[in-house]
Design brief:
Component of the TIM23 complex. This protein has 230 residues and is of the alpha+beta class. It contains 5 helices and 6 strands; from the N terminus they run αααααββββββ. The chain is 57% helix and 21% strand. The longest helix is centred in the first third of the chain and has 68 residues.
Length: 230
């Protein structure tokens, strides 16, 4: 029936119907193209919105955790120690403070004693360590000692059975009303080894050399006297 109606229409009518059909087809194709092009854009917008929300949520959680840590730290640092209000609490606090002050005073006192002993050991005129250091310096500077032991001379105290070196052997005594101190230590050089003996005596309040000599270890043993005020 439709074909019959189109056949009976005039040519101009048929042209108008064809034009309307083409316009409708073009409009439908355009809508499909717009819809297909909008889908990826909408998807990208949706993914971007989700990512933004996730980032904001993470930042919010981090800020909350930082605030919590800061509040705990501030509470620990700022919070003042509560003072006891009862008599027993006050007595306990005073006893604790007294014990603390006594411990600090004892530590300071022990430190002072240690410094005093250390100074006496290394800096006093009658210190065996100081006499040993002075005697070793004289031995190293002596030309005859360099010929006997070598240019480089080392000094050390007695050795234990395990090879450990102890302090320099020394002996303090009094004779003829005068204080004396004698030290003995070992020498070692490139050429030979030996021992050294030195003694100082207190005269008129001052410590002076009484003697200093060295003796080689290898045979024939050689004795060299550096100082002799006996």
């Amino acid at each position: 029936m439709t074909s019959a109606c189109l056949f009976h229409l005039s040519r101009s009518g048929r042209n108008q119907l064809l034009h309307i059909a083409r316009v409708a087809y073009s409009f439908r194709a355009g809508n499909n193209l717009v819809a297909s092009s909008c889908r990826p854009l909408a998807a990208r917008r949706c993914f971007s919105d989700k990512e933004t929300k996730t980032t904001k949520l993470a930042e919010t959680k981090e800020q909350e955790q930082t605030g919590l840590q800061r509040s705990i730290l501030e509470e620990v640092l700022i919070k003042e120690k509560q003072k006891p209000t009862t008599f027993t609490g006050k007595v306990a606090e005073k006893a604790s403070n007294t014990f603390l002050y006594a411990a600090v005073a004892a530590a300071v006192g022990m430190l002072g004693v240690f410094v005093y002993l250390l100074a006496g050991e290394f800096f006093a005129e009658d210190s065996p360590q100081k006499i040993y250091s002075s005697a070793l310096a004289l031995v190293r500077e002596d030309g005859r000692c360099q010929d006997l032991f070598g240019s480089t001379i080392a000094g050390f105290g007695e050795e234990t059975s395990r090879g450990r070196r102890r302090h320099v052997a020394h002996h303090k005594y009094e004779k003829d009303g005068r204080q004396r101190i004698r030290v003995l230590f070992h020498l070692k050089g490139e050429r030979d080894e030996g021992i050294a003996q030195a003694e100082m005596e207190q005269r008129d309040g001052e410590w002076q050399w009484r003697f200093l000599y060295v003796e080689t270890k290898r045979r024939p043993k050689t004795t060299h006297v550096l100082i002799d005020n006996r």
